[in-house]
Amino acid sequence: MRHLLAVDDLGSDGIEEVLRLTASFVEVSARAIPKVPTLRGRTVVSLFYEESTRTRLSFEAAAKRLSADTMNFNVGASSVHKGESLRDTVLTIEAMGVDALIVRHASAGVPAQVARWVQASVVNAGDGWHEHPTQALLDCYTLQEQLGRLDGRRVAIVGDVKHSRVARSDIAAFTSLGADVVVVAPPTLLPPSLAGWPVEVSHDLDGVLPKVDAVVLLRMQQERQTEALVPSLREYTASYGLTRRRAALLGERAVVMHPGPMNRGVEIAAEVADLPRSVVTRQVANGVAVRMAVLFLVLAAGAGS
Ligand code: NCD
């Protein structure tokens, strides 16, 4: 696999392979010295045109645990503000000798465009409302870890589905591993058409919660909302927030997930985020091992190293 641009690049066999590799990198991450020489001499650059905490640090940790050299491109302090085009920026970075580019951008399709310009491998770290494949893979790994398997499990994805690349990638990945997905949101936070999406839709969170094995909460992405899509955040929370009362409707073994950053008190109550059934920090920990698996697949597997 040369690039990872979308979940569909992998198919269910590819996802299973990533999950198997992830398990071995979880083992590496648990060692006293969590480092292997697999990508020694390789250079991984992160090119983030949009802010990020966990995804950027997670890829950096993953690259370092595989002994790759890492470089960070800080858009704020770069020549982008002198008017340099994306293509010139990318070709300049590639000319320095780069093996993989980790790309995040506010516009859908940018990582795929970059992949057409360069010889290096490109990994999509989130493009607009489109996809965030490594988040979906770490969510699959976490679900498998917590529930044993995804096949036949029922997962609710709740909140601002319309603006969420995480929702799109999660739906593709979960359903390809055999899970049933129900999206729960007010009509204004759903895409204009759900035709072709392999999901059920509900507007009744209380009715859905007792029947699911996991609930994935999405952040209200106000930076992407150009008009008022909910009457107020308070009313959103009243109907769609995972409050303490609602969390009590979940089955005994059901887990709560959130890709972060969480808005405590909006889509998830502060105390619910801290319940034992909340596996948000497991997601973050697993994210590093998943990204090690992805970097291994694009840079080392099949390359004779
Ligand atoms: C998400 C993102 O940026 O797509 N965060 C993440 O990568 N873990 C979700 C969000 O911004 O709400």
Task: Describe what you observe in this structure.
With 305 residues, the protein is an alpha/beta fold. The protein folds into two domains: 7-131 and 284-301, 3-Layer(aba) Sandwich (Rossmann fold), CATH 3.40.50; 133-279, Rossmann fold. Helix content is 38%, strand content 15%. The protein contains eleven helices and nine strands. The strands form two sheets. Strands 7-6-5-8-9 form a five-stranded parallel beta sheet, with helices on one face. Strands 2-1-3-4 form a four-stranded parallel beta sheet, sandwiched between helices. Helix 1 crosses helix 5 (133-147), helix 5 (133-147) crosses helix 6 (165-176) and helix 5 (133-147) crosses helix 11. It starts with 10 loop residues before the first helix and ends in a 6-residue tail after the last helix. The site of N-carbamoyl-L-aspartate has 11 residues, from helix 2 and helix 6.
Largest sheet: 5 strands, parallel
**Going by CATH, what is the homologous superfamily of the largest domain?**
Aspartate/ornithine carbamoyltransferase
Helix % is: 25-40%
CATH topology of the largest domain: Rossmann fold
Mean pLDDT over the residues: 94
Instruction: Tell me the number of structural domains.
Output: 2
Ends apart, CA distance between termini = 14 Å
The ordered string of helix (H) and strand (E) elements is HEHEHEHEHEHEEHEHHEHH
What percent of residues are in strands?
Answer: 5-15%
C-alpha-based Rg, rounded: 19 Å
The total of helices stands at 11
Low-confidence stretches: none
- Strand pairing plus helix content: what structural class? alpha/beta
The overall strand count is 9
- Which cofactor or ligand species appear? N-carbamoyl-L-aspartate
